[in-house]
Design goal:
single chain; hydrolase activity; hydrolase; HAD_2; 2 domains; HAD-like_sf; six-stranded parallel beta sheet; HAD hydrolase-like protein; 236 residues; 10 helices
């Protein structure tokens, strides 16, 4: 079973996220952070990023999120692009019998819509994301990646009749993805084409950081082979 992050891993937002956040802040009359700060906002829940990285006052967070989501649905999804080789890789993994799932910090309904717009929805057995945007700063809103990965693994286990398909692996572009995988005891592969800072993925514990879809496929197959050798219960 392979879990994929979405933005920065499978889909290049092509400025739809960072530019959209900047335009939402501007429309709300709030300061727009530098480009490097906007880049770092791709990955965590949006409400959390607005509070911690853009210093948006608590009472304005919901407003900025609404502005951002409105533009993202109108233009951002269509402006995004699937990374080179990603769709072909998904197809080959499916042909080999791997179960595939998405584990993203996006609210799940928006993730499903983005996959549909980008023509990727047919490759995945399940899609897991935040239940809703963290507009109020409540613990239940904007679930962290650890909980989202847990839900994806549980869905995979249920589909397999109660036993987690082995090996389970995580693919992502930020330390949140890697840390969630490490928490659950599964290997994580980082992709260098996303939004991670230099050394971020390695420091978080990534088994490897890859620079192309072909290299990613090689590492996935190596990890699958290692797990298969480890015991007869190993599967995909």
């Amino acid at each position: 079973m392979v879990l994929f992050d979405l933005d920065g891993t499978l889909v290049d937002p092509a400025g739809a996220i960072t530019g959209g956040i900047g335009r939402a802040l501007s429309a709300a009359g709030l300061p727009v952070p530098p480009a490097a700060v906007l880049d770092s906002m791709v990955g965590p829940p949006l409400g959390q990023s607005l509070r911690r990285l853009a210093a948006v006052p608590e009472e304005r967070v919901a407003e900025v999120i609404r502005l951002y989501r409105s533009e993202y649905r109108e233009r951002g999804m269509a402006a995004s692009r699937v990374y080179p080789g990603a769709e072909a890789l998904l197809g080959r993994l499916r042909e080999r019998g791997f179960r595939l799932a998405v584990a993203t910090q996006k609210p799940a309904p928006i993730a499903v819509q983005l996959l549909r717009v980008q023509g990727l929805s047919g490759y995945f057995d399940s899609v897991h994301g935040a239940e809703l945007d963290d507009t109020d700063g409540t613990p239940a809103a904007g679930h962290g990646k650890i909980q989202i990965v847990a839900a994806a693994l549980a869905a995979g286990a249920a589909a397999a009749g109660g036993d987690l398909p082995v090996p389970a692996m995580m693919v992502g572009d930020r330390h949140f993805d890697v840390e969630a995988a490490v928490h659950h005891g599964i290997p994580a592969l980082g992709v260098a084409w996303g939004f991670a800072a230099e050394g971020e993925l390695e420091a978080a514990g990534a088994a490897a950081v890859v620079r192309s879809a072909e290299e990613l496929e090689e590492h996935l197959m190596q990890l699958a082979g290692m797990a298969a050798v480890a015991g007869p219960a190993a599967g995909r």
